[in-house]
Design brief:
The chain has 108 residues and is of the alpha+beta class. 43% of the residues lie in helices and 14% in strands. The protein has a three-stranded antiparallel β-sheet with strand order 1-2-3, covered by helices on one side.
């Protein structure tokens, strides 16, 4: 009986250091993905409102109690509205907490 070709006998055909490097990189990418996903998943509406209320206080000198949140649409996860009349601010917030657009006057 004839012997099978070498590439069929050695499995993947990759040198061991290359194979272990790929395994290590895959595991590292998986761990980083889990950590990043967990940070985004733990970010709540309360966290977003508090963060943008602090920004409002810094910009205008108002109080955090002047702010409230309401659901957004599409890419806008949450709309944080703060103040009234001359100090009014509206912050469009993405699911990961970043600001989508600049401050816009709130709707009446």
């Amino acid at each position: 009986m004839r012997k099978a070709p070498g590439f069929l006998q050695s499995g993947a055909g990759l040198p061991r250091p290359v194979l272990w490097s790929l395994v290590g990189l895959s595991l590292a990418a998986g761990v980083l993905g889990l950590i990043t996903g967990r940070q985004v998943a733990d970010f709540t509406e309360t966290d977003a409102i508090a963060a943008y209320a602090a920004l409002y206080v810094q910009e205008t000198g108002g109080t955090p109690g002047d702010c409230h949140g309401m659901p957004g649409r599409g890419a806008v996860w949450l709309i944080v509205q703060c103040g009234s009349e001359d100090t009014a601010r509206s912050y469009d917030v993405a699911r990961d907490g970043r600001r989508i657009t600049g401050a816009t006057p709130p709707e009446a």
